[in-house]
Amino acid sequence: MSLKDDIIRDIKNLPGKKTNRKIVCIYIDDYGSIRVKDKKAYETLKAAGLPMDSTRYSKFDTLASVEDLQMMFEVLQSVKDPQGHYACLTPYANIANPDFDKIRESGFTQYFREPFTETLKRYGSSHEGSYELWKQGIAEHLFHPEYHGTEHINVLRFMQALQRGHKTSHLAFDNESVALPIIPGDEPLKHESTVFYIEKAEENESLKEDIRVGMRMFEELLGYRPKQFTPGAGNYSPALHGVLKEEGIDYINVQRYFPYPLGDGKYVKKFLSNGKKNEVGQKYVVRNCAFEPYWDNCKRNDNAVAGCLENVAAAFRMHAPAIISTHRVNFVGSLEASHRDDSLQQLKTLLQEITKRWPDVEFMDGTQMCEIVF
Ligand SMILES: [Zn+2]
């Protein structure tokens, strides 16, 4: 890597709260949310003309199976910090999914959701015991989920597409799958998986209710209130800060520089950094170390480990925590096991390199990191 690249990395870490401790936490988005139900749904949808191999989400992404979680936990337990802590994931989780049967029974007039634990029951023996592994991961501090939106779809746009008979949406729906690339020639859809995207400010009212329901469901299923939030697909209105605060959210994970929709065509652009406070006292979290073993176009990212290590080094040089960012899609194998196995191997290499280069590293979940540093 060039000196120029190093300087850019250092500058990115200039703003934000500092620490002399070498803290690593790993945020991983999308656990709990459906995408492609299974291999059969993938084949059916591909045969119907959906370009399923055009994005990593339609080619690989699905609910984590028992095998996926067990293999992930083994990788996390392959390293330990000097305090004896294993590496720990902070999954941004979606606690619910659409209830396809009830929505169909209503003639697509009404939206119904189900907890992800009900969804898992329709995924067969490969997923039997997944929920127990979530709870085990939480108890053993390998897995500490936080809130990514109640479901990972924009309910209003999902229902509108079904109501106007959108062909790709109905094919996906019939196969219990969501947010897939459209059949060539079909009407393009925007913001299908962008949970909190709004066109009119008044749309925030139903989103507030979704947050209340989702936060309660999260606590019921996982045994604690989440303290951190990142919006599904990275977009939300600051008008939601108040309700998120009331429901227990103290930290909001955002992109460094982002136009937030206020509705009615209005946006506010903000530059955000680690530990910066918003108007209701919540603090922002900005990830600084990307780790995506596969690109969105499904190609392998041959620089994933080396690139992430450069960013961890820059974070530590600048006395920032190393906040790694990744997605579930890399680490699930029900649609294609080989890419999961490869991603897990890369994660293992990354973690081993981190413990080798920085023997005083401390593995934490996101909230522990925030409470210490911010
Ligand atoms: Zn997401």
Order of helices and strands: HEHHHEEHEHHEHHHEHEEEEEHEHEH
CATH topology: TIM Barrel
**Secondary-structure arrangement, i.e. CATH architecture:** Alpha-Beta Barrel
- Binned, the helix content reads 25-40%
Query: Would you identify the CATH H-level superfamily?
Result: Glycoside hydrolase/deacetylase
Please give the domain count.
1
By helix and strand content, what is the structural category?
Answer: alpha/beta
Mean pLDDT: 95
- List the ligand species: zinc ion
* Sequence stretches where pLDDT stays below 50 over 5 or more residues: none
Calculate Rg over CA atoms.
20 Å
Q: Which terms summarize this structure?
A:
TIM Barrel; three-stranded parallel β-sheet; 374 residues; alpha/beta; 14 helices; binds zinc ion
What's the layout of helices and strands?
Blueprint: H1 3-12, E1 23-31, H2 39-47, H3 56-60, H4 66-76, E2 89-93, E3 96-98, H5 100-105, E4 113-115, H6 116-121, H7 130-139, E5 146-147, H8 155-163, H9 167-174, H10 204-222, E6 228-229, H11 241-246, E7 251-254, E8 257-263, E9 266-271, E10 283-286, E11 289-290, H12 304-317, E12 322-327, H13 337-357, E13 362-363, H14 366-373
Parallel strand pairs: 1-2, 1-12, 1-13, 2-5, 6-7, 7-10, 11-12
Antiparallel strand pairs: 3-4, 8-9
Helix pairs in contact: 4-7, 4-13, 12-13
The structure holds zinc ion.
Write a structural description.
By secondary structure, the chain is α/β, with parallel strands linked by helices. The chain has one domain (3-373): TIM Barrel (Alpha-Beta Barrel), CATH 3.20.20.370. Helix content is 38%, strand content 15%. It has 14 helices and 13 strands. The chain has helices at 3-12, 39-47, 56-60, 66-76, 100-105, 116-121, 130-139, 155-163, 167-174, 204-222, 241-246, 304-317, 337-357, 366-373; strands spanning 23-31, 89-93, 96-98, 113-115, 146-147, 228-229, 251-254, 257-263, 266-271, 283-286, 289-290, 322-327, 362-363. The strands form four sheets. Strands 1, 2, 5, 11, 12 and 13 form a six-stranded parallel β-sheet that branches. Strands 6-7-10 form a three-stranded parallel β-sheet. β11, α12 (304-317) and β12 (322-327) form a beta-alpha-beta unit. α4 packs parallel to α7, α4 (66-76) packs parallel to α13 and α12 (304-317) runs parallel beside α13. The radius of gyration is 20 Å and the shape is globular. The model has no long low-confidence stretch (mean pLDDT 95). Bound molecules: zinc ion (ZN). Zinc ion binds next to β1.
